[in-house]
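User: Sequence in, structure out. Go.
Assistant: Echoing your sequence, followed by the structure tokens.
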Amino acid sequence: MNMVELIEKKKNKQALTKEEIDQWIDDYCHDLIPDYQVSSLLMAIVLNGMNDEEIFNLTDAMLHSGKILDLSKIIGVKCDKHSTGGVGDKTSLALCPMVASLGVKVAKMSGRGLGFTGGTIDKLESIPGMRVVLTPEQFINNVNEIGMAIIGQSDELVVADKKLYALRDVTGTVDSIPLIASSIMSKKLAAGSDCILLDVKYGNGAFMHTKEAAIRLAETMVRIGERFDKDVRAEITSMNQPLGYAIGNILEVKEAVNTLRGNGPKDFVDLCLSSGATMLLQARISKTREEAIEKLKETIANGKALATFRQFVIAQGGDVSYIDDLDKFPQAMYIHEVKSLKSGYISHIDTMGLGMISMQLGAGREKKSDLIDPTAGIVLSKKLGDKVAKGDVLLTIYTEHPNTSELISESLNAFDFSNDEVTVPKVVEALVSYDRNTKEFIITEE
């Protein structure tokens, strides 16, 4: 294969064939193509896009670049969930036990945080003793017995994505719907579930900055799922403010556990109920969305969701006494209350800015080799639409770093104020699915 010819084709807005894409991915996985040529092709794709057939073929080639999990020994409908990344997004910690307690089988692989987005695996590892590496037998047994298991992503799955993503990250080629969709869907398909729910976030704290772009990405991924005969649905959710109040690993674990106890922030609870309802419909455990939401509320009220989470923690080696008594978790050495210098209604929050501040406090990593401080992070006291008086606490900073004056100033700059009342936005704005009979997308505004 002549790589220069492929670059020229895509530069001239021509479609690549299945054979060309297969050869490109296979050769790159075997180190037969230099990075500089692949990065050139990636940039051509960013600039000129791909048609549906190319995106499907790229996903298929990446999917088959590694192993595919066989979950056939798991009894029941297996559902997976993926978020495109956000600030304060601890959804899997609460959502998975909620749906698992109702009979959905959740066999989930999750990643680590990088940049302004947090990772589910980092949050789980902040629970003492928690193991995120299991044998395939342990993984399948836990899902059968408890209803859920969450582990780190296997190096044997979707080998091409790891190589391509590392290259995209340093060549300015991350922001491309064909590349994002094929990356996400190849990993989700390799994980072996029957149904996939996608939480596609948009806003100033997400990779997709507009709702329209988020819908295009969601439709692309749902269409890929349809080609692989999978029930894939998506939710379009706002990331124009952090999800919940907590940002940071231990802080988010505590908020998720309190949510399972019935004391969760409204926006976070609303998202868990909406996502859970979609998963119950996909697993055919509920017939209507309203019925599903009532069932999910009941799992919190009767303690079954929390009991499932406790079982999950125990099964993966975690010290469940920390879940029973959240005060056992260690606390950061330095705790700073940041007070507002202005009065008014909060009209805008720089979500990505707060995520980056949290990373600098120690809660995240700038590069994959960075170590994380599980105690570090931010807890908001005020969110969009809240009325604030001068001197009110806007947020609290948790860190092991003694000198945070610059970050405190930056956190104050993350808030804009209005003299007029501000409408609080919904966290879930639309649902995206595909009707196989009409062969059309169904977009339901929430």
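User: And one key feature?
Assistant: The chain is about 45% helix and 15% strand.
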